[in-house]
Specification:
The chain is α/β, with parallel strands linked by helices. Helices cover 45% and strands 14% of the residues. α5 links the parallel β3 and β4. The protein is globular, with a radius of gyration of 17 Å.
Length: 256
């Protein structure tokens, strides 16, 4: 499907925004080149068990989708590290069909928007920016679109803490419930879905860590049959699993 000029990303325009992103297609080769560039620039150290890699390859090859939970230790670089890590892992097969939720103000600058659209971003209108009541309808539509993209074979990454946590980068204190709503709705569409936790750790604290050679750990997938039925249970298992991934990413620095 060809797209005309993309709609302005504002809360008032959310229906047109999500109509657009429900069918938007990434330029796969351009996305692949950008992910490769970020892998070369930041050179994240990516670790996972061989069985995990084999599972991811098998699920990708048969067209299954991943709902990916990622921690958010900095305010500047995590999305670049995640992209580079995806290129250096079996998730490379999904580049071009890889989505990531991003806050709406990232879409304000026209040139930046072109880049993040190409990388697969979907805007989110956050309650902390607009108010809970104001974003309720838009949030529900975002969940619908995310679930449908997963059903259609895309994978989706979510920084589940909602905002960066530079003060306690190795601890997942809380995650937002959106991950549970998206997974629950996708499963109701009979999506072949697997949950995947990716932990990121840097070799320095705070908002200005050493970005080169960040440690990234990919946990084994939580496969379709093991995903809980309730939204709160999904949130709980994701919280626990992501903490394990962050702990494993941090261990890289403690053993080198």
């Amino acid at each position: 499907m060809r797209h005309n000029q993309p709609p302005t990303v504002t809360l008032e325009n959310y229906e047109a925004v999500y109509d657009y992103y429900q069918t938007h297609q990434q330029p796969r080769m351009q996305a692949l080149a950008s992910y490769a560039y970020l892998a070369l620039k930041y050179n994240p150290v990516v670790n996972y068990m061989q069985e995990t890699g084999d599972q991811i390859k098998r699920f990708c090859d048969r067209g299954d989708s991943f709902l990916i939970s990622v921690n958010h230790p900095t305010n500047t670089s995590d999305q670049f590290i995640l992209a580079g890590a995806a290129f250096k892992s079996p998730l490379r097969r999904n580049i071009g069909h890889m989505r990531v939720l991003g806050k709406d103000d990232l879409f304000e600058d026209e040139e930046r928007r072109k880049k993040i659209d190409m990388m697969g971003s979907i805007p989110v209108f956050r309650p902390k920016d607009h108010g809970m009541k104001a974003v309720a309808a838009a949030g529900n539509r975002m969940i619908d679109v995310s679930a449908q993209r997963l059903k259609d074979g895309d994978s989706l990454a979510v920084f589940v803490q909602g905002e960066h946590e530079s003060q306690h980068p190795n601890r997942i204190d809380a995650i937002h419930s959106g991950i549970g709503h998206i997974a629950h709705r996708a499963l109701k569409l009979d999506t072949p879905l697997h949950l995947l936790s990716i932990g990121i750790a840097y070799d320095a604290p705070g908002d200005e860590p050493n970005l080169n050679n960040a440690s990234v750990y990919i946990n084994p997938p939580i496969t379709t049959g093991r995903i809980p039925k309730s939204i709160n249970q999904i949130k709980r298992i994701v919280h626990q699993d992501l903490q394990l991934a962050v702990d494993a990413a941090r261990e890289h620095y403690e053993t080198t």
